[in-house]
Design goal:
The complex is a heterodimer.
Chain A lengths: L2 E4 L3 E3 L5 E8 L7 E7 L5 E7 L6 E3 L7 E6 L4 E6 L8 E9 L3 E5 L3 E5 L2
Parallel strand pairs in A: 2-11
Antiparallel strand pairs in A: 1-3, 3-8, 4-5, 4-9, 5-6, 7-8, 9-10, 9-11
Chain B lengths: L3 E4 L2 E4 L5 E11 L4 E6 L6 E5 L3 E2 L7 E14 L9 E6 L6 E2 L3 E5 L1
Classes of the chains: A mainly beta, B mainly beta.
Chain lengths: ~120, ~110
Amino acid sequence: QVQLVQSGAEVKKPGASVKVSCKASGYTFIDYYMHWVRQAPGQGFEWMGWVIPNSGGTNYAQKFQGRVTMTRDTSLSTAYMELNRLTSDDTAVYYCARGEVVTGLEYWGQGTPVTVSS
Amino acid sequence: EIVLTQSPGTLSLSPGERATLSCRASQSVSSSYFGWYQQKPGQGPRLLIYGASSRATGIPDRFSGSGSGTDFTLTISRLEPEDFAVYYCHQYGSSPLTFGGGTKVEIK
């Protein structure tokens, strides 16, 4: 079965960076885009971008351009999302989600809480 | 960017009642790339509907989706106790992907 297992909770200070991992299993990693979506406390979902595991190509939401980097390691079937210059507004649960043309984002990781606080 | 506006913000209903949730897009969305999610407290989202009207794997048939263009609807025919949650609409046909602000279905 498809599983996306993310790294654990993080606490960071303003100005720092965070890198979240997402290990995929149960399918061929390079066959599906990997998206990153975040949810601030009590808020809705915000799409951050995707990485194409096969090529490493990326597409970032304009809001995060210049501050986010999405990468992958095909040998580990793992995708990564790094967000720099953190502020308190980046406090959220970060999710990876497998993208598919027909069903969209059907499979999600369990989420990684990131807290930014001085 | 396609903005999705959900209504109502909160729906107060009793088990067994019918729930009708709406989502309006700021511009036309391909119905092939429109979906609905359910989220319960402390959990991640669960895909209910994709392609505007197709149920995801394992989703009971009391959930149905409809609509096209800029107006989409999620209907829960008879609410079960486990259906009280927050529901989000989502379009994935146009970058950036976007989500609605959510409708909370609460027990009356």
